[in-house]
Queue: 4 jobs
Job 1
Amino acid sequence: MLAINVHSDPPGGFISLDCGATSNYNDSRTGLKWVPDNLYTNVGQTKTIKYPRLLSWLTTLRYFPERFLNKYCYLVPVYEGRTYLLRTSYYYGNYDGRNSPPVFDQIIDGTKWGLVNTSTLDSTGSYSFYEAVIKSTGKTIRLCLGRNAQTVGDPFISAIELRLLAPTIYNATNFEKYGLSLVARSNFGYSGNDIKRYPTDGYDRLWLPFKDSHQHISTTNISVTGVWNLPPNAVFETALVTNKVESMEIQWPQAQSLENSTYYICLYFNDIDHAVPTRPRIFNVSFNGISFYPDLNISDYTAWAVYATDWTMQGLTKLSLDPVSGSSAGPLINAGEMFQQFTLGGTTLERDVRALNKVKESLTNVPLDWEGDPCLPVGYSWTGITCSQGSRIRVTVLNLTNSGLSGSLSPSIANLTALSHIWLGNNNISGSIPDLKSLKLLSSLHLEGNRLSGTIPKSLANLKYLSQLYLQHNDLSGTAPEGILNNPGLELWLYPGNALLETLPASARSPTPSSERSIPLGSERETQPTSAASPSP
């Protein structure tokens, strides 16, 4: 179980996790504080990368060799209902000596965010980073790495950064339905090699230099306020511009073929070309020949942002700026951002998530993949958990038979009201059996082979769909409820074990219980139910 208190306030608007690090430090370039990641995950092992001139947060990593799990999760506290930039960074550095950078999935809560392909990484210090913009739905964000059919080695991660954004940034996006995955964030015309980030950008967005054959111009001491998405002043101090009144064509993003999808695009303009004293500077903006924004007039030295939230594109993309008739200055552009929209995959019903986490807290030795969303994405559900499909995702089966569990069974299990099967037999669970009267759909209850004590709850007799009740090999006492003893449709096992023999009628004390109400004496009964709704093995 994670050691972090997820009910406490998050540590400010910025969280920077150096995966594999052992102590806190302040980054010399940004002044931002980095902390080790060990309090935010309970799986994985760490490694140090010994290459010169690496960024400090690339010198260690956490990798996940536990191949019996299919996902590995971090749990990070956030402010509920706020918009965050989530950035993950990966530097392989041949840490495992295999010369085989792995491929794996990134998952945010219940949504498969995208594929991580670290094969582009090398020993020269280059690395890959991925950014998503999402809205938090609770007090935590769960980031998971997942194995998929392409994963050969072990997933790993170098750094995780969360940045709280102002409510107005990217707010044209419906974050109830979509997240944004960064494709490009470009500082057009900047001739340096450094990336503009915090403190230049107060939200620590990374603005990468964009250079091509067009003329590069620059100025200083630009002050821009009130521009959509609040880009930093620095990106308005450089630009690409044409030498004369002619079209500008840019392949943007560079050398990158886009998936057939919808994109959020925002372009930023501010006329800093004082070499052209006459105006106006008016041009049409288009992508691959399709009009994006017509007759854009940036002649008044006012900064502009033009954007689209659902722009469909694929393949290589050409950004064209074409001067209109009467324009006396050629087109100019300062910066741009492009995100691919991804549809949120939903989440398991929050009540079920809370209940399962209570169950997890009361047990020990639960599966290590009991982190993140219990049911989603499809294919990444927790070990022992089966879920319903459709728009309302519920937990329907809990099956941790022979899993080495101990501890007690939380009363919160009764809040999993869609459960049809509970299979927790042959563990070492102690304490009492909770009142399960709210589990109206429960069909089978297997608690045999534990150390449960106390009495059998009378409410079990009122569960009309209950057809299997296995409680043998426990330390139960008292009188078995008449309702379960007199139910001819209930397959019942109360012994051997338990201190109930003196209180049971002769028919229930028989060493060979009759037909439909029993299973063969001494069977460990690990066979699954035969109904269509049975738990999976």
Job 2
Amino acid sequence: MNKKPSSTIMTRLGWGVFFLALVFLAFQVIPRALGQRDAGKRSVATSMNRPQSPTARENAPLPPPSADSVLNHRRSQPAGQGQSQPVPPPHQIDGIDCNSAPGIVIHDDGGIENGYSGNPTLVSEVRFVDKFTPGSYPASYSSVCLDFVILSGGPPTYPIDVVVYDDDGAGGSPGTLLGQLNGQTATTHLFTGGGQAPIWNSYDISSMGLNVTSGSVYIGTRYVPPSNNVFTSADESGSIGFAGGYWWNNFDGVWSPTQNAFGGYHSMFIRAVQVGGGGTPTPTPTPTPPTDALWYNGDYDGDATGNGLANEQDTFAPGFAHVFDDFIVADSGGWDITSVFSDNQVSTNIVSATWEIRQGMSAGNGGTLVASGSTDTPVITPTGRFGFGLPEFKVEVTGLSVHLDPGTYWLNVTPVDSLDGGRSFNSTTLGANCVGTPCGNDQNAFFDSPNLFGFFFEPTLNLCPQCGDFSMGVNGTVSGGGGGNLKLKAGARIADGTKLVRLHWKGATTDKVDIFRNDELLATTVNDGDAVDTLTERGIFVYKVCEEGSSNCSNTVEVRFRGP
């Protein structure tokens, strides 16, 4: 990499009195002190600072890391609504929790000591990036957190870009631009020094579809320095150059290690959430229910209306958090269960899984354990969906042989890790593509985590307003079901405002079958195993399939479309 003339490098300042020194340097820092400069030199960088002794900084309290049971906290949460423990820090802009989000990568120590920018008299574009190296491959990054500070008179908000570069530049420096979010609004705050806490801005970058298979990426910001400057916050406590950052400005036109211009640089206040690899800008969900589902509560309902609740064991700490949701065995002969599963938004390494089926559950009461177990070989399948940047996986326990008589049961399937610090959250659902009863619509779920989060069979709606129903299910066969081997499943979804019910059956031996809806003959159709019913109104609909002209019929399946 070419070195720039010494006129572009800031001379080091000593400790002393705080003042704003907008000398004609093309870089600017919040000035630490009066210091000796060659007044004839101009630099493109600028920083800001207030005096503080190193010992005071080292002893400054830092925000403690915290683990939360709810995946996403919304500012619209009603006043007085019960919430998991502990709650997010108060200085958090809308978005992820930049202190304890699953997979968050942190280089800084939580206390701001400086801020860096470009001198607006010389620079019309400045970039600051830190280096992020995944712990395993492939990997992706779903969210970025940035902090910006100002001096008195600086703008309270300012437009910035979020940028990600490959490490394929000269000597491993930033090279190919991998993704960018342009024109994002950043909230700034007044620099006071003394290791003050950041007020984070978080940005969802999952649309970039990053897929890191080797090496590192550089993540950060790009903006035009205004005349009343905006500074990217910096940590100057610790080893110089720790975060491997670079900076760029259009006056010099080359990437340079950040510490070359800002001698105290340890890291920028840039954090990023690492998730599993293979990111895609538009993940494609599987729109059909599982093949052999007797009950499936429905697909994740999406970030706009959905959420996730901790469903994990031995992830960030020893202990467990279990989400239970209810299902009804309505067939008179009962069900023979062959596998159970849950859909989870995951940033952890799943090494095993546990499962439980209970009856008689209520608030504060775990009811009766009917069946349970664990496996070291769970079947882990990506669904193609993402929740708040985390990829969703179906975690299934197979090889079961459990008979359930008619009745109401509660299911839990929990991913287990080996304390690698990741997280797992059971996806919420509103019942899309559901099978059986209930259909993602009865809000009768419970959360049990006495040792991690201090809850004992707590109704999940007490934890977050979106936490009513959860994506999970059971596979198997109907014991002595109607029509011998005639079995029916149904999936419901709304496509472009049209309500569709897909029916799938097997076991009929006649050339044609009769399809009944709410005990009325809907259609007689060829026995090809599939049919689609288009509905014009919402409500509860019960289906069955019979061999043509006979009473040899399948089990019944209930489908619900809620709302006005």
Job 3
Amino acid sequence: MTTRQRFLRRPFLTLAVLLAATLCGTGQAQTTSGGGSQPGSFATAVSKSGGDLDLRSAGRFLRDQVLGHVVLGPDAIATSSPSVTTGTTPLSSPNTQVNDPALDNIQIFPANRPFLHYTQSETTVAAAGQNIVVSYNNSAGITLVRTPKNGFTPPKGQGPGLVFTRIQISGYSVSNDGGRTWTSGYVPAAPGVGPLTFGDGVVVVDRGGNFYYSSLGLTADGHGAVVVNVSTDGGRTFGTGVIAAVDDGSDKSWIAVGPDPTNPGRDNVYVTWTSYSSTGSSVAFAVSTDGGQTFQSKIIFAPGTDPDQTHPQNFTQFTNPVVDRSNGRLYIPFAHFSNSNTDFLQMLVSDDAGQTFRFTNFNIPGEPDPTLVPLVQPGTFEDCGNGGLRLAIVQGNNIGGGQFGLPRFVQSSRLTVQPALAVENGNVSLAYNASDSPFFGDPSSGSNIFLLRSTDGGQTWTGPQQVNPSVAGEPRHVYPAIAIGNGGSQVDVSYYTQHADGTVDLDLSTGLGTATRVTSQSFDLVPSNIPIPGPGPHLPFQTPIRR
């Protein structure tokens, strides 16, 4: 079977980072790689009806887009110390804004489009007592300056260009008083890298109150890496990044911490991520048994193609590891994609700290394999310019002009099918969002949140059952997050609800078919897909980076 794939070459990084005047490279372009290990091509999109669905995360996309063009002069190399500001920003409600808005900024250069550095996204949170750490992508960590007119020769012609003096996307905020006040900063890169971190940050905390932050980064010689930072002072500061794995194909890392199954007094740190290759993507894994000082890594699942396009194929993404603290069992759910309308979730389980894994059997009736949970991904399939073809919730009118006849919406927010998982005392709860249409990318579809539950460590399951109530005028429910308590008997699921007018609220369900509105006022989707004229017919428009 021939699968259409989007390819990217491993970016070439020397001592410097130069941005051409347009900052526009399409995800379909190939860039020359060099230095370090042998160059390679990476397939990062799965073939679907209507086009190739780009699977890259925001962090991976930015790393590809930026590093594909650059050279960074020695004068631009900075230390790896984080920039930190303090402040409190109460909202007009009991909620408090955790990121410091004083860091947000807009940079405008003549003959260039504006660079909007005020977007925070993809949050996670961990807490120990009064110490709370929130991780997020923070575009406020990007800084550029203009080069001399003839100082550089960008790939697309003689300068002038723009030089990055800082690309610190891996942001965080910390509170040491139970959430009353917050401090914001950026985790440091690995040694010798300079101010280059690429987000997709996730934070967890161990039983001793130590915080671990995983994200995408680089090695000192310019290779892609999964990086872990450790805080031993309640999240006030994070140490220099530790390389969990060197992987030029790395994307969308996630992290978990919990007791070793044979040495319950010790907490192990587990990191998972997607590893792209020239033939698809795999589930990658690393473990630390010394508090995040060193890691051992490997590929734990590398699927191949199947002649039946409705079956799972050679692409996986969106892992979400969780440890049961009662026995140290490690669960790793993830998405596994087909070339048809229906995709799947699967889950790997280990009882020996990642030495071996087995698949969980969900036994969903009618499926070709007992390990598969079927779903149709939610969202409208739209053209996001140089951001690729994506699924999104949208608001407003289709402005037209998309590639392959696909729609374009200025107000868009990307959707994924990353499963949400919570485990306690053998009680396992898996939540996910799914379309109510049998067709991939159906713009008229709605979506719901579903829950699968097991009370015996994943041996048997009930569900899937719909979590959100069905309410007129609320067609889409997306992005579940899950928490479990009371020994596993209480399961709470939060999610976003989109109304018929496109506005969004945050809801919380503490029981099936019921919901409490968390937000006091509905909000609009941000204008994240603003078209800018492209350089040619292969890319009719571009989208500015707003991450």
Job 4
Amino acid sequence: MFLFFFFIMAIYHCNHSHVGRNTHRPGTAAAHISYITRESATSEIMASHMPEDRNRARRWIIEQELAERKNGRVIDKVNVALPLELNHEQQRQLVMDYGREMSQNRVPWLAVMHTKPQDAHNPHAHLVFRDRDIQTGKRVMMTTERGSTERFREVWEHVCNTHLAMHGHDVRIDRRTLKAQGIDRQPRIHVGPEANAAVGTGADLRSNVREDKKRIGQDRAAPKRKIDYPQIDKGMTRRAFNDHIIDLNLERLRRSPDYGTRLKADFEAGQRRKDRELLKQRDDIRRFASAANGELWEEYRDIRDRIVRTGKQERERMVTDLKSDYKPLWKGHFERRTKAFEEFEQQQREPSARLEQIKRSLPHLWSQLEPTQDKTRGKLSTVFKSTVTKEDRLSALTEHYKAEHQKLYMKYSDDKRVLYKLLRNEHDHDLDQAKKSWQDKRGAIRLETDRLWQDYGKQVKERNREKIFERENLQNYIDEYHKDFGGAPPSGGTARTNLQERIEKAREQTQHHDASGGGQDKPASHEKPKTVLEERIEKAKSSNKGGGRDYER
């Protein structure tokens, strides 16, 4: 049982989570749709009862969120791993059937496939369900009920295995844990896209002790569980730790008393060595893109900062020159203003002094005029009211020079604005040229990266087809061997080595036979054709029955 599940079980991954109005920030659902539908990763978008266009889907989900009650669930998010055994069209049909099965064609849902070359090792799909009946607006999937996540996982297992069987593949997925399946094997850990990308770009990764969101027990006052990642991964990255687990499992299988198990373990170890070459190529592409874009960004940033710095210096120099040009005008303005106010004060002081002098020199005249003052009282007041007072003249003088000051300042501001605009146009042109050059170079890097990813994707697809083809040939060989010889062969390494040499030789002959077969395509794995390896098995079998040398040797 252990052997069967280890070698022909496909990868199972189905993760379910949700976005609620009172558990997440406003716009989180729309942001999730923006992320999963990004152009750099999306290969195909499918939808039912909701917009398929990226921008329209965002606006639609925002409207749905605003219409949802304040403690309602906005969307359910599902992430599934697509089987490598299926081609793109078969994977697309699988995702469509899963969406229809879960929604019962009654609730809106959106599915996005990420199967571009950079995801060739990890094709997957993101699904978004809006659990509201399109007719009644009521719940259909009951995703808020206990056990809803298990239903998502169970339906995915059923639909995926149905499609694998429908297309003639023997592999299956199983949602149960390894312990529940009866498999004595250390489980692998999940390596997310961020961890893979960080390793691929050569980032310095360090583990830290993290505080889990879940609390210990049911008590809300209980402390949160702490996860000691440095103790778990022993200082290795998640990908390196995952590889370490796989190597340990294969090493355990190499020590198995069963001959077929040891042979399969050696076969899988060889496949991993070949896969590492592709993974190294994937990391090299990521490093190339990251380094090239980083250098290009630094170059553009330096040019941009230099243009901005030069523009600032030119503006300061321009303002200094303009101030120098306007300095004589300001000086003349303030000199005229000062002189005018001094003359005004002088004019106000002269009549007062003359009047005081008359009062002191002719006191007898004033005594003679005293009796007549009652008769003339009020006549001079009307005369003074018709004349301009000191305050009026001072106010008029102040307004005059204030207007002159404003006029000069406006002229200065207009000249500075015109010069600023000329400088800004020149610098904006330089900035636009620098940005356009950066975008053109970045576009060239993107085209080169896309070409590398396309080549890489072709190699991965060919590698997967080859792996499936060789694994089925190996399984056929082991089945034929156990059918004819029953017991296990000697456990020494020589027998395994000779057998591996014969398998490699048969594989080369198979490839040569396919290459010289008039351009015929390699038969599909589920057709199980009679290969050169099987012919060699029959030849060795007949030789052993006819008294020839022992087949195992």
